[in-house]
Amino acid sequence: MQPRASSSEAEPSARSGPGERLGVVGKYWLFQSPGIVMAAVVLYGLHAYEILTPRWALVLFGLWIAKEVALFPLVRIAYEPHRRGGAHDLVGASGVAVEDLDPTGYVRLGPELWRAEIRGSGQPIPAGARVRVCAVLGLTLLCEPDDEQEADLGAASLGRARAVTEET
Question: Taking the chain, what is the end-to-end CA distance rounded to the nearest angstrom?
């Protein structure tokens, strides 16, 4: 088994910004620090006005820190620098044209409808045809006909043609 390359070796450009030097854990704790400081100030104030004993203030502060530690695995993905998220993750995905793309229309990718345009000056794509996302411009997908689907349609129509000729 080969050792994994560190993220700085695998993606040198991904570690270029000042926030990237902190790492995922550092960014998380930096983002959570105002809440932690506010909790400490409130607990100190409750202790100063003799509403909480020092022991209860420390227990509550410890629970606050434990909450932050417990939530980190659930929100870690939001702090990772290499994830772009959004529409850019759709490049290469296949969908179905909901209406004719001539040159614009809508396509369905999973449960979502997206505005789409034909890439370049291609032929219109009929409704119901499979499309592949080539690029994203804002919230508009640039699509082209899915070659795999066209090959499947070609084979299916060839099979139907053989069946028709065999019947006659």
Answer: 61
